[in-house]
UniProtKB/TrEMBL annotation:
Gene3D superfamilies per the UniProt record, alphabetical: Jelly Rolls, Winged helix-like DNA-binding domain superfamily/Winged helix DNA-binding domain
Protein name: Crp/Fnr family transcriptional regulator
GO cellular component, one term: cytosol
Organism: Chryseobacterium pennae
Source species taxonomy: Bacteria, Pseudomonadati, Bacteroidota, Flavobacteriia, Flavobacteriales
Residue span, Cyclic nucleotide-binding domain: 12-132
Listed CDD domains: CAP_ED
Pfam families: cNMP_binding, HTH_Crp_2
Boundaries of every HTH crp-type domain copy: 146-218
Domain of life: Bacteria
Length: 226
């Protein structure tokens, strides 16, 4: 059930043919981003798409009161920023590195050329775009209809899935800052702190500093109302 809240393009690159991979790699311009450094900002005109090689990137919007709402967190292996290119519109959100990250930039002209040349890449990306819209609709529904406790449980489950897929270790530790986690849940940091302490007292999670380990995924899934 958690899959409907997670984009599915993380393994898209690996599923491409060797020829398609080589076409993309030839035009990729790799850049290192520091923690908290923006990759692109809402309202700017896109001039290419991005492929996250290492690290994690958050996708968020800022409301009229200046509050940040995290929509999604990208893992290594995911493409992002392509919906603005395909819709021929400005970026509808901001992306920012939440840890030191390595990002490959693919210029717009090269991206569109490769789409024309590779039916497989075009098909995969359009399928991913369709799924992304579905994920966004599901997340918006959760934000509007579920309690803060339910949203907190769901956010932890989503993050567990993201950190597990990027970590080969047996123990999955969520290291997102409390501010970012509160922005993902859509609540105040103080409210999030109380819920996390409740989860800890109920032996659902273990906290060590900013690190969170889920101990009872089944109960958290029930709390998230999945």
């Amino acid at each position: 059930m958690i899959s409907k809240f997670i984009f599915n393009n993380q393994y898209l690159f690996e599923e491409l043919s060797t020829y398609d991979k080589e076409m993309l790699q030839k035009v990729m311009q790799v850049k290192n981003y520091r923690k908290n450094e923006a990759i692109f900002t809402e309202g700017t005109i896109p001039n290419g798409i991005f492929y996250l090689k290492e690290g994690k990137v958050k996708k968020y919007k800022v409301d009229n009161d200046g509050r940040e709402h995290i929509i999604y967190i990208y893992n290594a292996g995911e493409f992002f920023g392509y919906s603005a290119i395909l819709s021929d519109y400005s970026y509808g959100d901001t992306t920012q590195a939440i840890e030191s990250s390595v990002v490959a930039f693919i210029p717009k002209e090269d991206f569109l050329h490769i789409l024309e040349q590779s039916k497989v890449f075009s098909k995969f990306l359009l399928k991913s775009l369709s799924h992304e819209f579905s994920v966004m609709a599901n997340l918006m529904t959760v934000l509007s209809q579920r309690t803060v406790r339910e949203r907190a449980a769901l956010s932890l489950l989503i993050l567990h899935n993201k950190y597990r897929s990027s970590n080969k270790a047996e123990t999955v530790l969520i290291t997102l800052s409390r501010v970012d986690l509160a922005n993902m849940v859509g609540t105040a940091r103080e409210t999030l702190a109380r819920i996390l302490h409740d989860f800890r007292d109920e032996q659902l999670i273990v906290m060590e500093g900013r690190k969170i380990e889920l101990k009872d995924i089944e109960r958290l899934t029930r709390i998230a109302n999945l």
